[in-house]
Amino acid sequence: MAAIDRSLVRALPMFEKLSDAELDRMLARATLRRVPIGQAVFEQGQKATQFFLLLHGRLKVTQVTADGQQIIVRVVHPGDIFGFAKALMRDDYPGTPTAAAESLVLCWPTEVWGLFVEQNPHLAVNAMQTIGQRLQEAHTRIREMATEEVERRVAHAVLRLIDQAGRKEGEGIRIDFPISRQDIAEMTGTTLHTVSRILSAWEAKGLVEGGRQKLLVRDAAGLATLAEGES
Amino acid sequence: MAAIDRSLVRALPMFEKLSDAELDRMLARATLRRVPIGQAVFEQGQKATQFFLLLHGRLKVTQVTADGQQIIVRVVHPGDIFGFAKALMRDDYPGTPTAAAESLVLCWPTEVWGLFVEQNPHLAVNAMQTIGQRLQEAHTRIREMATEEVERRVAHAVLRLIDQAGRKEGEGIRIDFPISRQDIAEMTGTTLHTVSRILSAWEAKGLVEGGRQKLLVRDAAGLATLAEGES
DNA sequence: CAACCTGCTTGCGCGAGCGCAAAGACACTG
DNA sequence: CAGTGTCTTTGCGCTCGCGCAAGCAGGTTG
């Protein structure tokens, strides 16, 4: 197996406190994996044998309910770690991360997590913080789902996406990976139909510009107003 | 300040790996606080200066939205730690824990968290696991809110409550702290009216028995069937 | 270039559950 | 024990958004 170059991960805040030597030692235990669009890194319910770091691309983490309904729990962005179920004392993965765009992933066997943390407590602190943020985010979503009507939820979801994955593009901000109406529906707890209607309405108002698996936000401020619900 | 007796916390899984000496050292830094019913341990948005362990009683953690709506994020049970925002690198508390029953709380200044973790890495592992479980639970709730209709959500919430705070009582299982229809509504993202109607219907079917701030589940299995949604 | 597939749009009707409103029940206070 | 405040029940109308169904567009394949 070829050694993985430090430069791939050097810039990540996760590792900024590590020395080059420590980093190399970590990378020596890792494998690199390409995940083509539409493919899953692992499946919900599978035994957790590895944990991961997304280097490039984008993953949607889904969960399916007993009756086959699907929801998107979160989106994994480059630099995020994911699938560290073992650190949380689970032994199976709770969701399925699927590549929304061609992705590149670093994989470590779960056993090394303990070693890494021992050698470098910073990593544990960092991981803890990461989970904390996710918990926060989850609570925010719960609150939104409990109190807000669909249009505002969709607005919030879109704003979150342009915040996490926005790329400036001429007249506005583009969501930088392929995302369908169905996806947005699964993030906001509604149906593809309703999302389509809402986006059409927004397009008529000049707030956004749609397209097949594409979304361009022309007026983020306007959307934010909508999200805050001044009817 | 009087020393706090080890026996109060010895039995908690959180501390089972600690020696008596270590435990005493921790307790030496703690203060004990009684929280009367209806009172908050701290307020949402307040600077995080302490973290806590619930010894006795029951707390409901609420968040309020910008427009004044309230939701219950979770319930804190005896033995749970809470308010360790600093460990998650926040410096304010994200919610308000209010005593649903007369409660007893151990309080530590946030600074000692680092010390404790250094001395006893087990604590960090434990904390991580705790947050992991909460994240899991949060995702479960998101999934429920996104895919299930109100009656099933309420069923799930009640089942969770009897699981976490159920006490066997003659004909069924009682929820062991005062809980109102309003509370259940705020846990499931609906209104007090709808909850009341649902519980009335269940009572007619012999599934539960209601009362002012009380709930007794007579047929947990029946409720579970309902929650799984075999209409 | 035609055929096809997948994702998007739109119309229509219906039903769950919310909002409002009013009244009843229970517990605590003086 | 009457009075008061909080919690709960129940009725009624209305609206949001879902479900179904049909048609459309754009990109990909033979």
CATH class of the largest domain in chain A: Mainly Beta
**Number of separate structural domains of chain A:** 2
* Poorly predicted residue ranges of chain A: none
User: What is the C-alpha radius of gyration of chain A, as a whole number of Å?
Assistant: 19 Å
Largest sheet of chain A: 5 strands, antiparallel
- Give the tally of β-strands of chain A: 9
- Give the end-to-end Cα distance of chain A, rounded to a whole number of Å: 59 Å
Main interface: chain pair and counts = A-B, 36 and 36 residues
Helix content of chain A: 25-40%
Helical stretch tally of chain A: 7
Class from secondary-structure proportions of chain A = alpha+beta
Estimate the strand proportion of chain A: 15-25%
Q: Give the mean pLDDT of chain A.
A: 93
CATH architecture of the largest domain in chain A: Sandwich
Spell the H/E element sequence of chain A.
HEEEEEHHHEEHHEEH
**Could you state the CATH homologous superfamily of the largest domain in chain A?**
Jelly Rolls
- The shape of chain A is globular
How is the quaternary structure best described? Answer: homodimer
**CATH fold assignment of the largest domain in chain A:** Jelly Rolls
